[in-house]
Amino acid sequence: MRVLYVITKADEIGGAQIHVRDLAERLKIDDHEVMVVAGEYGAFINQLEDRGIAYAILPELVREIKPYKDLKACVLLRGIIKKFNPDLVGLHSSKAGIVGRIAALGLGIPVIFTAHGWSFTDGVGNRKRKLYIFIEKIMSHFTDKIITVSEKDKELALNYDVTTAEKQIVIHNGIIDKFKEKVPNKKVNSDSKKIIITSVARFSEEREHGSVCCAGKGISNLNWELHLIGKGSRINNVELMV
Q: Of the candidates 120, 81, 121, which has an alpha carbon nearest to the alpha carbon of residue 100?
C-alpha cells in the first residue's frame, strides 16, 4: 500500500508530528510505501531522515491563511499526489486538511483527515470560530473519514453541525512502548505535604501556560511546586510570567 501524509509544521515536535512520524515508521517496517509532505524543514524532517522515510517540502503550505500561497499549495500538492499515486491520503492539522482535500478533489483517492484539536475549539474568537466552522462544514463533504483524538472533539464537531457521527471515529493518540521492563514507582515521602504538579508540553500559544501561571499566582500561599517541561517559541514569555 502507498500512503501519503500531509502536515504543515516541521520546526517543532508536537503531538501531530510524533503521530505522523510513528505511523510512517510503522508503515515502512511493514513494507508499505510512505511519503510525508511538510511545509518546511525542521526537527521533524530530521527525524524522518533518521528513519529513512521519504518526504517532500512544500514551502507554500503555511499555517496562516494566505490566499495566493494557499492556491499555489493546492496546485503543487495535487502534482505530488498524482506523481506518488497513493492508495490513501492522510491529512494532519487544519491547514493541511483544507489544502489536502482541495488538492485531492476528483482523483478518486480515499482521504482521511485527523483533527488534532479543531480550529474552532473553545477559546477561539467568535469571528474566527464562525469562519473555521463554515470551512470545515464544506471540507467534510470531501473527506472519507475524520479521525478525532478525543470524544470531546467529536462532540464539538457534532454540536456545531460540522459533520456526522458516522463520518467520525475517535482514535486516541498513543506512544510506542520502548521500555522492556516497567519503570519502578518512585517512593513518595508520606510526611511531605507539598503537592508537585508537572506539565509536559511545548511552549506555544495553544498550550496556555499563561493561564497556569495566573492560576498559580492565586494559590501562591499554599504548599505546592510546579514543573513546566518542554521547549518552544514562547519559552521566554513563560519564564517572564513565572
A: 81
Q: Measured between alpha carbons, how far is residue 3 from residues 35, 116, 135, 140, 157 in Å?
A: 7, 19, 25, 20, 26
Burial (Cβ within 10 Å: 0-12, 13-18, ≥19) of residue 30? exposed
Q: What pLDDT digit, counting tens, does each position of 133-174 carry?
A: 999 999 999 999 999 999 999 999 999 999 999 999 999 987
CA 242 to chain centre: 27
DSSP the chain: -EEEEEES--SS--HHHHHHHHHHHHHHHTT-EEEEEESS-SHHHHHHHHTT-EEEE-TT--SS--HHHHHHHHHHHHHHHHHH--SEEEEESHHHHHHHHHHTTTS---EEEEESS-TT-TTS-HHHHHHHHHHHHHHHTT-SEEEESSHHHHHHHHHTTSS-TTTEEE---------SSPPPPPPP-TT--PEEEEEE--SSGGG-HHHHHHHHHHTTTSSEEEEEE---TTHHHHHHH-
Question: pLDDT by residue (tens digit) across 49-92?
Answer: 999 999 999 999 998 888 999 999 999 999 999 999 999 999 99
pTM strictly above 0.85: no
